[in-house]
Design a protein that fits this description.
By secondary structure, this protein is an alpha/beta fold. It has one domain: TIM Barrel. It is about 30% helix and about 20% strand. The protein contains eight helices and nine strands. The protein has a nine-stranded mixed β-sheet. α3 runs parallel beside α4 (about 125-135) and α7 packs parallel to α8. The radius of gyration is 18 Å and the shape is globular.
């Protein structure tokens, strides 16, 4: 899925009483077709394969219209630059690093002087992708850390512990790529104490780490509830002792969303 929105980003915030500055800029969100490396029972993609920023009136109209060729994709990119003055792209979906075309996509976006944000679990970072990210003038990789507890990790993701992720974090940092981290606050599974542990761990692997804390959006049929505001505040406060904390919970005015593909 390809869509453009006026992106609203919270700046790092270490305390709930600090003002949340916002930044408005046109950004393109690119979603891969549903493919995952990890089985995550709480994944928001189980609610819809489309972007959750869309309203119900738009969601009901969307239909899969086939995969874009690279030329068709770049035509959409160039039109978005010309028509909307697009400045930033967000590469996400299920797991974008599975796509063998991703290094070429990063290279083409970088050639157009676009800021690139790649959302990944960092299990697979090929040498070609690493090279393109290292050459990128304005790239940022957001790595989702599910949990640092080995037993929880293999139980809920179906993957062995985090060694591949940790190796790839080191490779990215050594290549000079900007890396920030993200985790989901899940009461009873990945709560404030667990997130504090993640934050403390990050201080040992990189300087001035940034951690995004996302409150869980509950999935029907799973046992986990949405955290309260008090629980989110506690997680941010405890993690903020070690890292710079961000959250998407307070984002100011809603974004304007324009679907570019599939065509409505």
């Amino acid at each position: 899925m390809t869509m453009l929105k006026n992106r609203i980003s919270n700046q790092p915030c270490e305390h709930k009483n600090q003002p949340h500055n916002v930044l408005h800029r046109p950004a393109l969100s690119l979603r891969a077709i549903p493919r995952m490396q990890l089985y995550l029972p709480w994944c928001i993609r189980k609610l819809t394969p489309w972007d959750h920023h869309l309203g119900n009136d738009e969601l009901v109209k969307l239909r899969f219209q086939g995969l874009l060729s690279i030329n068709e994709f770049l035509e959409i990119i160039d039109n978005a630059i010309n028509q909307y003055s697009m400045e930033e792209t967000v590469l996400g979906g299920e797991e974008p690093t599975i796509d063998p075309a991703l290094p070429m996509i990063v290279r083409e976006l970088n050639n157009r002087r676009l800021r690139i944000r790649l959302l990944t679990n960092a299990y697979e970072i090929s040498n070609e992708l690493l090279n393109e990210l290292g050459l990128c003038g304005d790239c940022e990789v957001v790595i989702g850390i599910k949990t640092l507890d080995p037993s929880k990790h293999i139980k809920y993701t179906g993957k062995p512990p985090l060694e591949p992720v940790l190796r790839n974090i080191k490779r990215l940092l050594e290549s000079g790529v900007r890396v920030i981290f993200e985790t989901v606050l899940i009461p009873g599974l990945n709560d404030a104490k667990d997130i504090e542990g993640i934050a403390k761990y990050l201080t040992g692997i990189t300087r001035d780490p940034v951690l995004i804390i996302d409150p869980l959006i509950p999935i029907p049929g799973t046992p986990w509830r949405r955290p309260t505001q008090e629980e989110l505040n506690e997680a941010m406060s405890r993690a903020g002792r070690y890292v710079r904390v961000m959250t998407h919970e307070k984002i100011g005015r809603p974004s304007r969303v324009v679907v570019l593909y599939p065509r409505l």
